Amino acid sequence: MSVSEQDRRQKLELNKLQKRLRREVGQAIADFSMIEAGDKVMCCLSGGKDSYAMLDILLNLQKSAPVNFELIAVNLDQKQPGFPEHVLPEYLKSLGIEYHIIEKDTYSIVKEKVPEGKTTCGLCSRLRRGILYNFAEEHGVTKIALGHHRDDMLETLFLNMFYGGKLKSMPPVLHSDDGRNTVIRPLAYAREKDIARYASLREYPIIPCNLCGSQENLQRQVIKDMFQTWDKQHPGRLETMFRALCNVEPSHLADPNLYDFKEGKRLGGKRQAVQTASPEPDYGRLDVLNL
């Protein structure tokens, strides 16, 4: 195959993937009322393929959306050793989008507080959420967009069933009890393999995540490997599983908080909410670059 023919095929594939992801993100936004007129949406970027693709598609949709909304990009630099600090600012500057880099040394805090050999994900994620949620409130953000996709939601469902004893996943939209924070997941309908291929064709400057390799991450990798095997051996199984996640029948489960088995009536159940923003401990120097 000639170079020109290969380039042509890649452009066609890129265009096809972009249309698919755009359609899926647009459908998720519509189905779950993720973005409304006047919203200020904060795209949380980690430097991974998912958050790059999320920002890319949202910027694309913004140009033709029936409602006006604002997009800003935010990255939390947790002072990981070897983190390439220049990559995201250079990339975001090339897009011409408003962006903020929050610098906080949560890495040292986690290493100091968590005993050697113990999982660091719990404390790390709580610190990260608190910082991002407070930043969102201080800057008039109405929606916090995270790059979790369909496979993340299914993996979380299985992790909670296998290790947490809960039938619980990542919902497309989460509201805090006091209304201060709303989290959205625009990639809720998107497949990880589509995002991975799209990111490869778009040649995003990916920043590898090598923070901890903790127990939780290892458990998630076991689930991920299981899904990849199913996807190869039983095409369509993951799609069917996700449809089940969107089609719950409380009367055929066993949670009395969701269904009154005596009266035969559905109940409101336990309301799911995000953790609200709270005052932060002193983590040392904080630099926010408004560029």
* Strand arrangement, major sheet: 9-5-6-4-1-2-3-10
Tell me the series of helices and strands, N- to C-terminal.
Answer: HEHEHEHHEHEEHHHEEEE
Class derived from helix and strand content: alpha/beta
Low-confidence stretches: 281-291
Shape: globular
What percent strand?
A: 5-15%
Helix content: 40-55%
Report how far apart the termini are: 44 Å
Helix segment tally: 9
Average pLDDT level: 86
Rg over CA atoms, rounded to whole Å, is 20 Å
Main beta sheet: 8 strands, mixed
Description:
The chain has 9 helices and 10 strands. The chain is of the alpha/beta class. It is globular and about 65 Å long.
Can you describe this structure in just a few lines?
This protein is an alpha/beta fold. 45% of the residues lie in helices and 13% in strands.
Notable features of this structure?
single chain, 291 residues, alpha/beta, eight-stranded mixed sheet, 9 helices, globular, disordered C terminus
Topology (SSEs and partners):
Elements: H1 3-31, E1 40-44, H2 49-62, E2 70-77, H3 87-95, E3 99-103, H4 106-113, H5 121-138, E4 143-145, H6 150-164, E5 173-176, E6 182-184, H7 192-202, H8 215-233, H9 237-245, E7 259-260, E8 265-266, E9 273-274, E10 287-290
Parallel strand pairs: 1-2, 1-4, 2-3, 4-6, 5-9
Antiparallel strand pairs: 3-10, 5-6, 7-8
Helix pairs in contact: 1-2, 1-7, 2-7, 6-8, 6-9
